[in-house]
Design goal:
A hairpin with a 5-residue loop joins strand 1 and strand 2. The protein has a single domain, classed as Alpha/alpha barrel (Glycosyltransferase), CATH 1.50.10. The chain has 386 residues and is mostly helical. Strands 1-2 form a two-stranded antiparallel sheet. Helix 3 runs antiparallel to helix 4. Helix content is 46%, strand content 2%.
Length: 386
């Protein structure tokens, strides 16, 4: 059975799947027949993951690597989104969380960004979501400046025109090959801006993202000949996404450029389209969903093997929840309860101490703090679907 969302509820729901907005009261988790036991197991897994994350916080309030505030923001968000609201009160948060927020605030820069030395868009976008979640009046100047900083990162007038409209890591502390837009950074920026819109629906601002330009950039990262003539024409890639126009991390190492679609970026593309208010009936949205259905896997990040596997799980949970679909029609004709299947997979992969980690280190996934935050956030999204 498919749940059909209207365009308006589709976009709003997607924005709230990333993080519960500060003024939002969590609805009770609905129980499906046969899912009560699994729901309880998921909550126990979340609690174990959060307990492990708490034990990993450093004395200065940070997690993992202080050079990247985003690595502190992800655990903070995981604590905030606990389905049982254990850490959400109308007053102060537990001291360890407040220390984390204090560190995030300390990274604010005169340009409005919230970062240390690099990856300024990535760090600022996650920091903006964190501060919106904490929702303190004293943080409003930081929130406003961070939003403007992110909007200011949108590319225009690029030497390579296909990159216009997207957002990259930012101008600080990155190698030249990263000083241009990519789909992943664009997604993270769009999530932050949508979270701001959901949290501040009555706040009007003269500056805003050029959303049409963003949509055009997204279309140029999708392998769909009807809307992107420069994408792959191979039917196996149709509807999927690559990292940025003209480049895919799933391409072979022999120098050939087939622009292969892969799983994590296709969920990133789908979510980005939703954040940009594309309708569920839009052919680009439907093509992305079709590629994901045909290439569904819980054993690998399709096209990438185990590289980025846990980020793939994280985006899968958010992406499928945002579509409102309860089941997937798989190529073999079966219907899959994706939330139940993904929950069981993550439970199986959890370590005895409550953490998760990828033995494949690409994209920092040998960092158990990062991967555990991904998994807890994924399970918190799944809990709302069980």
């Amino acid at each position: 059975m498919k749940t059909i969302l209207t365009p308006a509820t589709w976009a709003v729901a997607a924005g709230l799947f990333f993080v519960s907005c500060p003024a939002t009261i969590a609805e009770p988790i609905r129980e499906k027949p046969g899912h009560v036991s699994l729901k309880n197991e998921v909550q126990l897994s979340i609690d174990r993951g959060l307990s492990w994350l708490k034990s990993q916080q450093k004395p200065d309030g940070t997690w993992s690597n202080a050079d990247h505030p985003a690595l502190t923001c992800l655990p903070l968000l995981a604590f905030e989104r606990n389905p049982q609201n254990k850490f959400q009160t109308s007053g102060a948060r537990p001291e360890f969380l407040e220390k984390g927020y204090a560190f995030v605030r300390s990274q604010a820069k005169p340009d409005g960004g919230i970062y240390s030395t690099g990856l300024s868009n990535y760090n600022t976008s996650l920091a903006l979501v964190c501060l919106l979640t904490r929702n303190l009046p004293a943080d409003e100047p930081l929130i406003t400046k961070a939003r403007s900083f992110i909007i200011g990162q949108q590319a225009k007038g690029m030497a390579t025109e296909s990159l216009d409209g997207g957002i990259g890591y930012g101008p600080t502390g990155v190698s030249p090959k990263r000083q241009h837009p990519d789909l992943d950074n664009t997604l993270i920026a769009l999530e932050a801006l949508r979270t701001y819109r959901a949290a501040r629906p009555n706040v009007e601002s003269k500056d805003d993202l050029d959303w049409n330009a963003a949509i055009q950039f997204l279309a140029r990262t999708q392998n769909l000949p009807e809307s992107n003539p420069t994408g792959s024409k191979d039917p196996s890639n149709r509807g999927g996404f690559v990292y940025y126009p003209g480049y895919s991390n799933a391409d072979p190492t022999d120098g050939s450029k087939p622009l292969r679609s892969y799983g994590s970026m296709t969920y990133a593309g789908l979510l980005s389209f939703i954040y940009a208010d594309l309708k569920p009936s839009d052919p680009r949205v439907q093509a992305a969903e079709d590629w994901l259905r045909k290439n569904f896997s819980l054993d690998e990040n399709p096209g990438m093997g185990r590289a980025g596997l846990y980020y793939y799980y994280h985006l899968m949970a958010k992406g499928l929840a945002a579509t409102g679909r309860e089941t997937l029609d798989l190529p073999n004709g079966s219907k899959l309860d994706w939330a139940q299947a993904l929950a069981k997979k993550l439970l199986d992969l959890q370590q005895g101490d409550g953490s998760w980690v990828n033995e494949t280190g690409r994209w920092m996934e040998k960092d158990p703090v990062l991967v555990t935050a991904y998994c807890v956030l994924a399970l918190e999204t799944i809990a709302s679907k069980l």
